[in-house]
Design goal:
Layout: H1 2-8, E1 11-17, E2 28-31, H2 33-42, H3 45-50, E3 57-61, E4 67-72, E5 85-88, H4 89-100, E6 104-108, E7 112-118, E8 121-126, E9 132-134, E10 137-139, H5 146-151, E11 157-170, E12 179-184, E13 188-194, E14 199-207, H6 218-229, H7 236-242, E15 254-261, E16 267-268, E17 271-273, H8 276-279, H9 288-306, H10 311-329, H11 345-359, E18 394-396
Helix pairs in contact: 1-9, 2-9, 9-10
């Protein structure tokens, strides 16, 4: 998104991706409020909707697969767990790539290993390619960004005590178009979500005091998941069996710590941060993708307006406009993630009763108790009208 709008403003942009090509892996992401408006202004809203997952809503289930509570998807930007603009991460990446490929240089199979900001630009060292210089470098990576660490080595993740494993499993005839959620004792949840490419997306989430699991190798991570969910019931045997399914090597297991990034500033000299690397609101907020899209749009506008000679002013304007939006997005429900991940059977019973009440007509106002089941105050932001009159010749990576 940032590359698109900078190119619109006449900048020469380069995107560096350490993988050899576009990655199809990834689960459902949703786009709401101000981020939906960014899609409209970018001219890709219709394409995103056309490639949606088709998810019809969220359904809580018990051990036997019976429905405890249901939250159907609603049209437009109404609150709820399933947005109208619900798309696979890989599908959105492809759409953005195709939108920018003609005007943006893409470097696949390489990564940044050194950043040296100076008054006139940033000298960049790559693992494989020759070093280059840019007017501005923007780090658009995940919560555990290694590139961020090159300029902000003291950045620390705000740990929420939760891990989630994402994997893709074979679709079965009885899989429907609903996101199915099941709680097991011990702070464990299992989920199945539909996609639009013929498979099913599975999630295994658990609370734990152990850290460093995201740094283990795939075999060790599979062992952790098998031991953690061996007695979970519901669809656990099916999901665990798929851990060793070689047919899905193109969508490998991904295990990650759930947390937030709360930084006092989002730049160091001419190196800026956007998306999760700067202000990850966490999976629990449901706002990660929206924050990334809105942040990229606002940052592009600030850089286009101030130009490469006033980068500090551009980053300051970006932070001033975006920070209130991000801070609202990072406000997760009190008691989260524990409320949605009870450790006891009694706690699960309370959660299910609350979900049943929240899913009923009179109980809609209580959906905030369950975290991201209600609308979020972070959905709206007055977006700037981007000025695109900067002449060509500026460079950004």
């Amino acid at each position: 998104m940032l590359a698109h709008w900078l190119a619109e403003a006449g900048w020469s942009t380069t995107v560096v991706e350490r993988y050899d090509g576009l990655r199809d892996a990834g689960h459902n992401i949703d786009v709401r409020g101000a981020a939906r408006e960014v899609l409209r202004r970018t001219g890709i809203e219709d394409e995103v909707l056309a490639h949606g997952t088709g998810e019809e809503g969220l359904r809580f289930e018990d051990e036997d697969g019976a429905t405890v509570a249901a939250f159907p998807a609603e049209p437009g930007d109404a609150g709820g767990p399933t947005a109208e603009a619900e798309i696979l991460r890989g599908e959105l990446a492809r759409i953005l790539y195709e939108r920018t490929a003609g005007r943006t240089e893409y470097v696949f199979g390489d990564e940044i290993t050194g950043l040296e900001p100076h008054d006139d630009g940033v000298d960049v060292t790559f693992r494989h390619g020759a070093g280059r210089s840019f007017d501005v470098v923007v780090v658009a990576e995940g919560l555990t960004s290694r590139t961020r660490a090159l300029v902000m080595p003291d950045a620390r993740i705000h740990d929420l005590g939760l891990y989630t494993a994402y994997l893709t499993i074979p679709r079965r005839p009885d899989d429907d178009r609903w996101w199915r959620w099941y709680n097991a004792p011990g702070g464990r949840t299992l989920g199945l979500r539909p996609d639009n490419v013929g498979t099913t997306r599975a999630l295994l989430t658990f609370t734990t005091g152990v850290r460093g699991l995201e740094e283990l190798g795939p075999d060790a991570q599979r062992l952790v998941l098998r031991r953690t969910f061996a007695d979970a019931g519901w669809q656990a045997p099916r999901i665990l069996e798929a851990l060793d399914d070689g047919a899905l090597d193109d969508a490998p297991l991904y295990l990650d710590l759930i947390g937030q990034m709360r930084l006092p500033r989002w730049h160091a000299g001419r190196v800026g941060l956007v998306g999760d690397a700067a202000y990850c609101p966490s999976l629990l907020s449901g706002m990660g993708t929206s924050c990334a899209l809105v942040g990229a749009y606002v940052l592009a506008g600030a850089l286009a307006e101030h130009g490469p000679d006033r980068v500090d002013e551009a980053f300051a304007a970006y932070e001033t406009r975006l920070r209130p939006y991000v801070e609202r997005a990072q406000k997760i429900a009190p008691g989260a993630p524990g409320l949605a991940h009870p450790r006891t059977r009694a706690g699960i019973t309370v959660l299910r009763r609350a979900a049943a009440l929240a899913g009923s007509g009179p109980g809609r106002a209580l959906t905030g108790v369950l975290g991201r089941l209600g609308s979020t105050p972070a959905a709206e932001l007055e977006l700037p009208d981007l000025w695109t009159g900067v002449p060509p010749g500026r460079t950004a990576a």
